[in-house]
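WARN  no MSA supplied for this record, continuing single-sequence
INFO  ligand: acetyl coenzyme *A
INFO  echoing inputs
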Amino acid sequence: MQKTALIRIDDKELSLPVMVGTEGEKAVDARKLRADTGYIFYDQGYGNTGSCESAITYLDGDNGILRHRGYPIEQLAAHSEYVETAYLVIYGELPTAEQRHAFGQLLRQHAPVETQMLKLVEAFPQDAPPMVMLGALVGSLAAFYPELATNNFEKDLKQFDLAAAIAISKIRTLGALIYRHKQGLPFTHPKDISFCDNFLHLMFSEPYQDYVAIPEVAQALNLILLMHADHEQNCSTSTTRMVGSSGANLFTSLSAAIGALSGPLHGGANVAVMQMLQSIHDEHDDGSRFIEAAKGGSKSNRLMGFGHAVYRNFDPRAKVIGQACQVVLNKLGKSDPLLDIAQHLEQAALKDDYFVSRKLYPNVDFYSGIILRALGIPTNMFTVMFAIGRSPGWIANWREVASNAKGRIYRPRQIYVGPVQRDYVPMAKRG
Ligand code: ACO
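INFO  complex generated
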């Protein structure tokens, strides 16, 4: 028998259907609530609202579980690599050797950007914020590939494969070009090498000398990108879906997602973590003062890299990256005082009643910055790295929306709390 939830309001009784996901997540299907009762559910920030059904990522924040297409993140971290996980996230299955090869080829073919686009990069002021540049450049892909600037790939799915590969490959290349522009360095051109090696080459090769990636460095980069590949209905992914739901094309939707990711409470947190660790270091504090200030409840003083909108347990990605951090530094023969501070902060916060009682644990950003720094990537590029990693998740979510023939435009409602109706006052009578 179909389970239902009963709502009784204003002498009306309404039976709402209950939905259950494949992992047992439960929801009350409230789509008819307003039409039948005149009421909406109020859920500021949508923290308790399911905006879609999705078959991409399962996240159980209470138990610290994250799975892409059913595969636990820990297994993907141990056995997969970024490009394979990107394929899995977008297409739903791990690729066969042939599929993996074809996908890799497509990414390599589309690594270079057009000459006109190089000019666009150059046109930005050198001190432009990298995420502002990335959002604008990714949006402009819709102009460079007008035939792919559509939300309807149903007649020719190969066109979707192309659009997805262009997006992933060029976001990576553009990220590196943005870095070089900001550093005042001449542009490098992609080579026919693996995804991560190519990124490191684009970033760090000199006109007179190719950068030769240490395997451990490329592996660490691979891990960081893989860890960010998707994360359910976070702010930027929901943005992708929302923009895509209007019929907007993939590149425009990705550009909006990049804007959403740029905020300090989302993708910008990895930058904020490094700034926090650096300021603790500069002030010769061991972090104790910072922890005390963070307990004041002010948003501007939060312990960055701690807490999560859905995890009320360890972020499983933070566990993997935290362990990798020490390994990478050891392999590179580097030590980092900021890692010592981060470890001290983590230990202190995990014993502190304020953080324990609020279930605030380290999130993915707490340690990722230390690895990125060890790889030679400057702090102002950290959120760009996040965007490169997250692009498969955005693309997969956009595709779910675009290919859903029964989908409707995302259009939340509100409770209006402004002035009630009043008459227009001519300027002479105001004041
Ligand atoms: N430091 C200190 N206190 C915190 C922190 C923190 N990092 N995070 C939450 N709190 C406090 C809140 O002030 C609140 O306290 P109260 O109950 O006394 O009012 C309580 O913990 C609950 O927090 P919420 O605000 O409900 O948490 P919310 O789910 O809204 O926010 C968020 C989640 C934005 C991630 C928050 O924890 C935060 O600002 N963290 C720091 C920024 C950060 O690391 N962001 C990265 C997130 S991961 C990602 O986007 C990849």
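The pocket of acetyl coenzyme *A is lined by residues 265-266, 269, 294, 297, 302-309, 358, 360, 363-365 (CB under 6 Å).
INFO  checksum written, moving to next record
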